[in-house]
Amino acid sequence: MITASNRLLTQALLKRDFNLTLSIPDGRLCPPVPNRLNYVLWIQDILFPFHRNVPKEPICGLDIGTGASAIYPLLACSLPNAERWTFVGTEIDALSAQYAVQNVTANHLEPKITIQHVSRSATDESCVILIPFNDPKARFDFTMCNPPFYGSAEEIAESAEMKNLPPNSVCTGAETEMITLGGEKAFVLQMIHDSMRDNVRTRWFTSMVGKLSTIGEIVQHLRALKIENYALTQFVQGTTRRWAIAWSFGIDRLPDVSGSFHLSIPYMT
Ligand SMILES: C[S@@+](CC[C@H](N)C(=O)[O-])C[C@H]1O[C@@H](n2cnc3c(N)ncnc32)[C@H](O)[C@@H]1O
């Protein structure tokens, strides 16, 4: 459960710094603003490396699992260059999708942000990039995602124990937000496979992850698939660290920042 103080802090920071209003239902994740802003700013660096060649035309992002807060679209569309950003946010949980729509509307961002409540069909039951691509011209400049980190409730309890915390302190969200079959690694590996489908036209695919070891496994997988164009980063806020990976089938190359943390990847031929 999210605590009242967490929720008030997030709401106050969003109001003070971005003039955003946010409501989150009980039992859903309360996003920490600095970490979410870090990820949005990294996306900006990926799209406009060295802040050169900033295009005049709008950029369109796909936020996979936007949550009740729709935090990434709201933040991006409140940046100083907000006129550039447009978003589609997908969400598999009906209550979160409903709140995401309300949060977009409350901030008058409907012209820039579309929320889609998505579900898995029998034909794509393992996919994680769930969005109809019926329009042959539809394309995204980037995707972003904060996947459920854990594979089971036991894993959440283990993680709390390792951090010497009570079990419910690492689990502030609903099961759908925190747990996915196989954990974050399986989610992102599936996303890589989805990204290889012909109909997912996107310049950069990205995801945040909660464990450094996951990044190593993802990189190994990308290399095995001969996807050589990828970039890594880490987000550090106080004692909390998160990592993120981006990969592309395009020709844009990013500066290598992986040297800023140690990544142990077995030798690959
Ligand atoms: C960890 S929460 C992240 C919420 C929000 N983006 C944030 O960063 O605070 C993961 C979200 O992804 C949603 N989700 C899980 N699988 C999904 C999928 N394949 N497509 C869309 N949403 C999904 C969950 O319901 C949950 O809201």
Produce a short descriptive summary.
With 269 residues, this protein is α/β, with parallel strands linked by helices. It has helices at residues 4-18, 33-47, 71-76, 94-106, 153-162, 175-178, 183-195, 212-224; strands at 59-64, 85-91, 113-117, 140-145, 202-209, 230-237, 240-247.
Index terms:
269 residues, alpha/beta, Rossmann fold, 7-stranded mixed beta sheet, 7 strands, 33% helix, globular, methyltransferase, SAM-dependent_MTases_sf, METTL16/PsiM, methyltransferase activity
CATH architect. name: 3-Layer(aba) Sandwich
Shape designation: globular
Biggest β-sheet description:
7 strands, mixed
Order of helices and strands: HHEHEHEEHHHEHEE
Total of helices: 8
Helical proportion, percent range:
25-40%
Task: Summarize the structure in words.
The protein has 269 residues and is of the alpha/beta class. It has a single domain (1-47, 58-247), classed as Vaccinia Virus protein VP39 (Rossmann fold). It has eight helices and seven strands, in the order ααβαβαββαααβαββ. A seven-stranded mixed sheet has the order 3-2-1-4-5-7-6, with helices on both faces. Strand 6 (230-237) and strand 7 (240-247) form a beta hairpin. The longest helix has 15 residues, at 4-18. It is globular. It starts with a helix and ends in a 22-residue tail after the last strand. The relative contact order is 0.13. It binds S-adenosylmethionine (SAM). S-adenosylmethionine is lined by residues 29, 31, 36, 64-67, 69, 71, 90-93, 96, 118, 128, 130, 146, 148, 176-177.
